[in-house]
Specification:
Structural class: alpha/beta
Strand order of the largest sheet: 2-7-1-10-11-12
Number of domains: 1
CATH architecture: 3-Layer(aba) Sandwich
Shape: globular
CATH class: Alpha Beta
Radius of gyration: 16 Å
CATH superfamily: P-loop containing nucleotide triphosphate hydrolases
Order of helices and strands: EHEEEEHHEHHEEEHEHEHEH
Helix content: 25-40%
Number of helices: 9
CATH topology: Rossmann fold
Oligomer: single chain
């Protein structure tokens, strides 16, 4: 299996926004497939749940797949994937999610997006990090570029290292312009590549992503 596992320091840091641009760029030269095996806070429309993040990720691919392959486990409850699945009467397991990520990928480059942070509960007695271990894909860690970003990044890098996971890079998501110089400051504490993501300079970001993956 070849690809990357997109995770973050927490929920709401912009993992999906960053992952969409990675998928869109890499699809220009590669056969790319996306997997967001589980999504919560999905709107119920008729008899179907609408996983907004998975739909957006899938739309970034050159070739569309059945949404049930992209995101087979959808829940309406706004909670951790573990709690949402339990409350819905579905005991979601780590094996379920791993198999979903590996289903029909063939020789494609796979972009997998996890949920929440690296230690977020994702299935019965399993964390996001456990899925990353199962898949053994290099991590791209998304951190919101804000006050506290250095601590968040270093803690997530430590968690990855403690679980013997390879980190391809840290991505600082510049949601609002600031003068914090987090990229330069973080580089002093880690040898892991640190790159910035900004909707206003996607060209530079995509060039850096090519070097990482």
């Amino acid at each position: 299996m070849k690809g990357v596992f997109v995770t973050g320091s927490n929920t709401g840091v912009g993992k999906t926004t960053v992952a969409i641009e990675i998928v869109r760029h890499m699809s220009q030269t590669r056969d790319v497939k996306v997997r967001k095996p589980v999504e919560t806070n999905c709107e119920l429309s008729g008899q179907n749940y609408i996983p907004k993040d998975a739909i957006a990720l899938s739309a970034a691919c050159q070739q569309q797949e059945d949404l049930k392959k992209v995101c087979p486990y959808c829940f309406e409850i706004e909670a951790s994937a573990e709690m949402a699945s339990t409350e819905s009467g579905k005991k979601l397991t780590l094996e379920d999610l791993a198999l979903a990520c590996m289903c029909d990928i063939d020789e494609s480059f796979v972009v997998v997006e996890g949920v929440g942070g690296l230690y977020s509960p994702i299935a019965k007695e399993a964390l996001n990090v456990d899925l990353a271990i199962e898949l053994q894909l290099p991590l791209l860690i998304v951190i919101r570029d804000e006050l506290g970003a250095i601590s968040q990044a270093l803690l997530t890098l430590e968690a990855a290292n403690n679980n013997n996971l390879t980190v391809a890079g840290v991505i600082l998501n510049v949601v609002e312009n600031n003068n914090l110089s987090n990229k330069e400051a973080l580089a002093a504490y880690t040898k892991t590549p640190v790159i910035s993501f900004s909707q206003g300079d996607l060209g530079a970001f995509c060039s850096e992503i090519e070097k990482l993956v």
